[in-house]
Amino acid sequence: MTVPVVVTGLGVVAPNGLGTSDFWNATLAGKSAIGPLTRFDASGYPATLAGEISGFAADEHLPSRLLPQTDRVTRLSLVAADWALADAGVAPADLPAFDMGVITASSAGGFEFSQGELKNLWSKGSQYVSAYQSFAWFYAVNTGQISIRNGMKGPSGVVVTDQAGGLDAVAHARRQIRKGTGLVVAGAVDANLCSWGWVGLHTSGRLSTGTEPTTAYLPFDDRAAGHVAGEGGALLVMERADAARERGARVYGEIAGYAATFDGRDDRDGRSLRKAVELALADAGLRPGDVDVVFADAAADPGLDRAEAEALTGVFGPHGVPVTAPKTMTGRLYSGAASLDLAAAFLALAEGQIPPTAHVEPADRYGLDLVTSQPRAAELRTALVLARGHGGFNSAMVVRSAA
Amino acid sequence: MTAAPFTLDDLKRVLLEGSGAPEGVDLDAADVPDTEFEQLGYDSLALLETASRIEREYGIELDESVVGDATTPRAFVAAVAAHAA
């Protein structure tokens, strides 16, 4: 009835590693990138720590023609897409343009670019606003620029569901592939660590005001008091399993199941999140006992942590499955987070290593088997990735290693 | 209003400042002035940005039709010269 859809390429731009192997080595080593914000003077804001990507020089990767028209998030996205396609061994120029699509998620668009243009608008006048502002700020700009750069004219789009978007985009890509598109670049990269974006992030009321990098973001810990924001994410190359096999591609694994739900107004026990997990498992044709590891959303808000823990213990039983949150080393990347978790999940399956949750001492009351401080070796075939977006979005995705 | 005439070199400078260098095209090549912008790798938005930068730098107002009608660097320079006159 439905064709298997697999991932054949990964492009990672993470605070603790540029490129898949740098990210994965850092993640297994427990190397955190959380530190004081350096992009601007954040000393006057409640939150002052972030997971910044350092050492990314866009002009080393992209033609100068693209630089005046792109925000940092789009530059990171374009490079992540290039790396994912190269990893998949795909040369888009050799493929039919209408058989390739791009589906990304975004939580903020090109904030820093807009900040500069709005500054020009009110300080100098409208004639000083770049013509490129017309699209550089836009949620769909990453999809558009990846599509133009690689000549991908097939079904494309953008989803805006905050952190859940990193899974929702991949799920939508799976739908398009099942409907007949040969290849889709999917996932998300977010980056809004500019002063205007920083103000916006504070409105969630969920940012940690901790000033010590090792204790500021502690999901499932009694000391949890909000999250640290980060930038980056991952893009994935997705194809039909039979097509990937036919061209002899290396296959990371299959997007086996997915579901999304919304929180009700009084949903405090993770009921809707649990439903998403159950529906994703059903979609994959799997039972809870088949899941070998869970990549948690890990909000680090006591109420949200409890809800997630209740959803997980409800489905898997207390301490019923290993749980990890490597995003404790990057901060929460909004739409980019779950895509990066998907990349980490495929790498974990390939290597039989569950990456650690950095710095956390899990509270007993949550009943989670949280993998902390060291990676845990395990036979891994199936992983569950969870993501919750601000406003009540819940998404769950099940991925399975290649047979 | 500036006294110096607007030249091909000025246009090249403004294009590079506002829209970056095109890939695989040498803007100093002899045939560039009469090559279509599209062939050079500059789309309509790049020309809009260029026109806007020229307007504020030279204190002139360009007709909106300049961007649509002047499809080569030489024609663009001529159009700017006509407006500045």
From TrEMBL, chain A:
For this protein, the record's SMART domains field holds:
PKS_KS
**Hydrolase is among the record's keywords:** no
The reply on keyword Cytoplasm is no
EC no. given is: 2.3.1.-
GO terms assigned for molecular function: 3-oxoacyl-[acyl-carrier-protein] synthase activity
GO biological process annotation, one example: fatty acid biosynthetic process
Q: Which UniProt keywords apply?
A: Acyltransferase, Transferase
Q: Where is the Ketosynthase family 3 (KS3) domain?
A: 2-401
The record ties this protein, via Pfam families, to:
ketoacyl-synt, Ketoacyl-synt_C
Q: Which family does it belong to?
A: Belongs to the thiolase-like superfamily. Beta-ketoacyl-ACP synthases family.
Q: What is this protein called?
A: Act minimal PKS chain-length factor (CLF/KS beta)
* Organism field: Streptomyces spectabilis
TrEMBL record, chain B:
Asked whether the keyword Phosphoprotein is assigned, the reply is yes
Write out the transmembrane intervals. Answer: none
Q: Which PROSITE patterns match?
A: CARRIER, PHOSPHOPANTETHEINE
Keyword Phosphoprotein among UniProt keywords: yes
GO annotations under biological process?
antibiotic biosynthetic process
All copies of domain Carrier, residue ranges: 5-84
Q: What molecular function does GO assign, one term?
A: phosphopantetheine binding
Tell me where on the tree of life, at the top rank, the source sits.
Bacteria
Q: Which InterPro entries match?
A: ACP-like_sf, PKS_PP-bd, PP-bd_ACP, Ppantetheine_attach_site
Listed A to Z, the keywords are: Phosphopantetheine, Phosphoprotein
Its protein name is Acyl carrier protein
Q: Which organism is it from?
A: Streptomyces spectabilis
